């Protein structure tokens, strides 16, 4: 597959998550809640997660922002549901490294990131990195506060 076709596919995945967000909404009943915003561009997220026996049993988000920010939140919630908290935090670390254009080690490189991989091109646009990482930073903050 040529670079242009791959780039186009990644754009389609991002736009699909933006137009049809997964896990949009809010959880109740003792859920972990984190509110964060990016003051430089106005993106904001309200993330709720339900933890059960050290696992992320459910995660939902609400917010406003650019397509990258909202698509990233959709992808992130899909990726962490069912994961234990350590795995979710490790995934956040891998995502952060990828989005900043840093090299991943062999183990990280072999991990199937699914739709999240579509965001790797954001590393070419430093001003958009904060957009892509907002939901992930909210998740990290919530899980670390819970520990």
UniProtKB/TrEMBL annotation:
Gene3D superfamilies: 3.90.1010.10. It comes from the Bacteria. SUPFAM superfamilies: SufE/NifU (SSF82649). Residues 10-131 form the NIF system FeS cluster assembly NifU N-terminal domain. Coiled coil: none annotated. NCBIfam families: SUF_scaf_2. PANTHER family: IRON-SULFUR CLUSTER ASSEMBLY ENZYME NIFU HOMOLOG. This is Nitrogen fixation NifU-like protein.
């Amino acid at each position: 597959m040529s670079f242009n076709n791959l780039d186009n596919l990644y754009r389609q995945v991002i736009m699909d998550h933006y137009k049809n967000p997964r896990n949009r909404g809010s959880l109740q009943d003792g859920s972990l809640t984190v509110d964060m915003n990016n003051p430089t561009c106005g993106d904001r997220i309200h993330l709720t997660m339900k933890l059960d026996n050290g696992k992320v049993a459910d995660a939902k988000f609400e917010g406003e922002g650019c397509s990258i920010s909202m698509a990233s939140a959709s992808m992130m919630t899909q990726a962490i549901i069912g994961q234990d908290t350590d795995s979710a935090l490790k995934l956040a670390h891998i995502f952060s490294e990828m989005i900043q254009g840093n090299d991943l080690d062999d183990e990280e490189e072999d991990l199937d990131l699914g739709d999240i991989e579509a965001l790797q091109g954001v590393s070419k646009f430093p001003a958009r990195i904060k957009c892509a990482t907002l939901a992930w930073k909210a998740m990290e903050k919530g899980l670390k506060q819970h520990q």
